[in-house]
Amino acid sequence: MELSYCGLCCDECPAGKATRSGDRDALLKVARSWSKSFGARYTVEDVTCDGCKSTGGRLSRYCRECKVRPCAQGRGLGTCAECGDYPCDDLAAFLRMAPEAKRNLESARRKAKAKEPKRAKRAKRVG
């Protein structure tokens, strides 16, 4: 499972799945669903997406407007879990709407911390 910068799994995204399979009817369903969910009109072109980490690929309107993506790219991060400013205000606002992304990022942070070398305890000075 590859995570997007914000912690969503692009492999599980209905827009990404429909784009990869070339299923125009599924893209239309996603466009209708996102239009209802986000209170804005989404077209098939607006939901066509190869994933936010794709280079030169198609990005959904949602990913093109994302504030998290360019920040993480600019910092050279694989995900926001690696950031020293985690969670910034923009990410925190997003994570309130996407609890699964927060769970994914928190899990990534725990795994990274577990891989860090343990610090040796300093010996107490005697005398």
Summarize the structure in words.
By secondary structure, the protein is mostly helical. It has one domain. It is 51% helix and 0% strand. It has seven helices and no strands. It has helices at residues 14-21, 24-38, 44-47, 61-64, 68-75, 89-97, 99-115. α1 (14-21) packs antiparallel against α2 (24-38). The longest helix is centred in the C-terminal third of the chain and has 17 residues, at 99-115. The termini are far apart.
List the main descriptive attributes of the protein structure presented here:
mainly alpha, 127 residues, elongated
Spans of at least 5 consecutive residues whose pLDDT stays below 50 are none
Cα Rg = 19 Å
Largest sheet: none
Alpha plus pi helix count: 7
Q: What is the first-to-last residue Cα distance?
A: 54 Å
Task: Determine the mean pLDDT.
Answer: 91
Which percent band covers the strand fraction?
under 5%
Order of helices and strands: HHHHHHH
How many separate domains? 1
Shape: elongated
Helix/strand-derived category reads mainly alpha
Portion of residues in helices? 40-55%
Could you tell me the number of beta strands? 0
SSE layout:
Elements: H1 14-21, H2 24-38, H3 44-47, H4 61-64, H5 68-75, H6 89-97, H7 99-115
Short summary:
The protein is an all-alpha fold and 127 residues long.
